[in-house]
Design brief:
Helix 1 packs parallel to helix 7 and helix 5 runs antiparallel to helix 7. It is globular, with a radius of gyration of 15 Å. The chain is mainly alpha-helical. It has one domain. The longest helix is centred in the C-terminal third of the chain and has 24 residues.
Length: 148
């Protein structure tokens, strides 16, 4: 995922949060849950893209065993939680929230240990982007939390 796509997802999250916050109605919650579902399904499917797997493998803390298996598992969990959000918004959003918490340490590792991560990255990622991912994940957590 490039910078353009990443910021498009952030924009989608902020628009959905704004919609639910400014106009809290069943319709705005439904639109926001559809957007969150689409985001999580797409993010989960990205775990099966060979190019994206290189990125995920690079930011995976080295002490975790079986990195490829963990990448596949988190991909299935992300896509599954996204799909379940369409069936049951509250439970699906709670699952999304839990998964986002589960993967947050990888983003922390990427920012804190950027020098060693940078050598393994398949794409050029600036240090500021690694640090920006941390508060942005908070935006996604808040998005899911609003839909509980």
């Amino acid at each position: 995922m490039g910078l353009k796509e990443f910021f498009a997802f952030v924009g989608l999250a902020l628009a959905s949060i704004s919609l639910v916050t400014l106009r809290p109605s069943e319709q705005s919650m439904l639109i926001s849950s559809y957007a969150l579902s689409a985001f999580m399904i797409l993010a989960g499917l990205m775990h099966f893209n060979p190019n994206a797997m290189k990125l995920y493998r690079a930011i995976m803390p080295p002490f975790l065993p079986f990195p490829d298996l963990l990448i596949y598992i988190t991909g299935v969990l992300e896509a599954g939680a996204g799909a379940y959000t369409l069936y049951n918004r509250s439970v699906g959003a709670q699952a999304v929230f839990g998964i986002l918490l589960l993967i947050y340490p990888a983003n922390i590792y990427c920012a804190v240990c950027f020098v060693s991560v940078k050598e393994r990255l398949p794409v050029v990622m600036p240090l500021w982007f690694a640090w920006l991912r941390l508060p942005i994940q908070g935006v996604f957590l808040y998005w899911a939390y609003q839909l509980f």
